[in-house]
Amino acid sequence: MKHSLSNELKNSSVDRFLLFIVIVLLNLVSIRGFVRFDLTSQKTYSLSKASKDMVKHLEAPLSIKIFFSKNLPAPYSSVEQYLTDLLSEYKANGSGNFSYQAYDMSKEQNQRIAQEYGLSPVQVDTLETAGFTSKIAWMGVAITYGDYIAAIDALKTTADLEYKITTTISKIIAAQDSKAQTIFEIGYITGHHENELRANPYADSYLNTGAGNYSSLLSDIYSIRQINLSQEDIPENIKCIVINGPKDTIPEEQLRKIDSFILNGGNVAFYVDPLDEFTPQANELPVYLPNESHITDLLSGYGINIGNYYVLDNNCFTQNQSGYGKQLLNWVPVIEKNGTPKKNPITDNLGGILFFCNGPIDISKIEENPDLKTTVLAKTSSNSWITNENIILYPGAMLPDQNEQFKSQNIAVLSEGKFTSSFNPSVKGTKNARIVVISSSACTTDILIDKDGISPTSMFNRNVIDYLNNNDDFCTMRTKGQRLDFISIKNERSALIVKLLNQFGLAVAVILIGFIVWRMRLAKRYIIQKRYNPEDTRTIKKDSKKENHGDNK
After folding, report:
1. Average pLDDT over residues 421-442
2. What is the DSSP string of 489-540?
3. pTM for this prediction
4. pLDDT at site 553
5. Please, are residues 367 and 359 in contact by the beta-carbon 8 Å criterion?
6. Which one of 79, 238, 478, 526 is at 20 to 30 Å from 427 when CA atoms are compared?
7. Cβ-based burial of 28 (10 A; exposed 0-12, middle 13-18, buried ≥19)
8. Burial readout 123-142 (b: 16 or more C-beta within 10 A, e: otherwise)
9. DSSP code string of 17-37
10. pLDDT band for position 481 (cuts 50, 70, 90)
11. Which of 433, 421, 424, 299 has the alpha carbon at shortest distance from 363?
């Protein structure tokens, strides 16, 4: 028995020694090579292909200097760590020309350096026991490449952080290398009372507030060129045009120019209102008449039909009104992630997209075209209906009839491939094209596009333009971390179960695991004792219990 025990101890020592050698070797290997795993569903901590390609092909040293104050209150406290993790990904995928350095902002010398790079401190609010207090903090980075310097200031959120860094680096690379293209020119069709690319503070309607924020949203890497088709053709260098809410009739000659543009591989964003608002006289309610721009005739030739109705949805934006409680704005549907495609760069990671006064889109005909792939980008909930009568954009003014038929309605679609001419079905396109059709232009106006461009609606519109300019990677880069993955709960009983598990599940699990570990230890102790020292009388063996029980009988 002693010989067997000594052999077991020797084998155990050898195993421990071999394990120690393996750990040492793994540490030596990890000095030169390492593997990263991003287990987040949205790949929040992984770089997109565009960022990897850019940093991999740096031809000169590029340095990013981090100027962040320490001990910032939530939610700002997580930004620096996320930024550092992100920059480590850039460095890991770089060619050796990428580096970054963090500065201690408690030192006045480093604060002066930050100011020399064009950064300024920002004010952040924090909640303490005495109430809200303000704090001055540094939250920015400076990027240097050759003789060029670019600063990104006021990084208060992790949203679209990779997008900001990558596009800023692209700009200074382009400034250094004139052959690099980072500014894309897009065409904006005018001449038919489209939404103006500026704010209209004197607008007499929600629908006429202008698209000033929309223009600012695109200005970082896009240059907008206004094109009047009555005076010129679409320039050959333009690969994407925007048709945003035309109200006047577009002559057939100009529609043919758009059709020819698509057949030759041009991409188009159509924002088409199903109804136009008219105010007869002062103090009178507006009336809503079918849109007469004839842009719907062009789309109908492709197989996309927009109905002259408004889509109303009970799953909509709500507002609290004093004395009336929560009011439903059913003409402002909220499109959650179940109303968007699962695998599409435009809508991936987005939820809570607001639309405004949309019409229903019928895509049954275009889906019959084998040369085109058509995707519904946004559809309302199953509690939706349509109307074109007694339209009053006021909470509670438009309610469904008792016999109303509710169903989901398409309000934004994407079609891509080789199109057939809308005017001559025998003429087919020579190149692949992409068109996005959204049945309202209100989603480009300042009522839904915020100045900072961080709302889901703003990101959706920006992603549309990126996708139409073949900048697909920018879409997912921008929307990382935007999606909230809620648990799908169908009834109150399920909700109660989830609530109890959330409150007590962890504690119960710890108790069960502790009990199982305790029983396993007892069993292991019994096996060891029975094998190596069965004659030990200091503990009562199970077999002894049985023998004693038999003797008592």
Report:
1. 96
2. --SHHHHHHHHHHHHHHHHHHHHHHHHHHHHHHHHHHHHHHHHH-TT--SS-
3. 0.78
4. 47
5. no
6. 238
7. exposed
8. ebeeeeeeeeeeeebbbbbb
9. HHHHHHHHHHHHHHHH-----
10. low
11. 299
What pLDDT, on a 0 to 100 scale, did the predictor assign at position 480?
76
Q: How far apart are CA 6 and CA 12, in angstroms?
A: 10
Q: Residue 52: what residue type?
A: K
- Quick count: other Cβ atoms within 10 Å of Cβ 452? 12
Alpha-carbon span 443 to 310, nearest angstrom: 14
Give the pLDDT confidence of 361-371 residue by residue, as tens digits.
999 999 999 99
Report the largest interatomic distance among the alpha carbons of the chain, rounded to a whole angstrom: 114
Residue that is written with structure tokens 């421990």 in the block? 16
- Backbone region of residue 417 per phi and psi (left: phi > 0; alpha: psi in -120 to 50; beta: other values): left
- Give me the half-sphere count of Cα atoms (radius 13 Å) on the Cβ side of residue 371: 15
Start-to-end Cα distance in the chain:
34
Q: Look-up: residue for tokens 């020592």? A: 13
219 vs 182: CA distance, rounded Å = 12
User: In terms of DSSP bridges, do strands 122-128 and 131-137 run parallel, antiparallel, or are they unpaired?
Assistant: antiparallel
Strands, E assignment, 170-309: 184-190, 222-228, 240-244, 267-271, 275-278, 287-290, 305-306
Q: Pairing relation of β-strands 372-379 and 410-417?
A: antiparallel
Condensed to tens digits (0 to 9), the pLDDT of residues 170-207 reads: 888 887 765 555 678 999 999 999 999 988 776 666 66
Rg of the chain in Å (alpha carbons): 32
Rounding to the nearest 10 degrees, give the CA dihedral for residues 101, 102, 106, 111. Answer: 50
Element at 300 (helix H, strand E)? helix 295-302
Query: With bands split at pLDDT 50, 70 and 90, how would you rate the model's confidence at 35?
Result: low
* CA 186 – CA 547 distance, rounded (Å): 92
Q: Cβ neighbours of residue 466 under 8 Å, at least 6 residues apart?
A: 345, 472, 474, 475, 478
Lowest mean pLDDT among 40-49, 111-120, 305-314: 40-49
- State mean pLDDT over 17-23: 82
Under the banding of pLDDT at 50, 70 and 90, the label for residue 524 is: confident
Residue of 401 and 269 predicted with greater confidence: 269
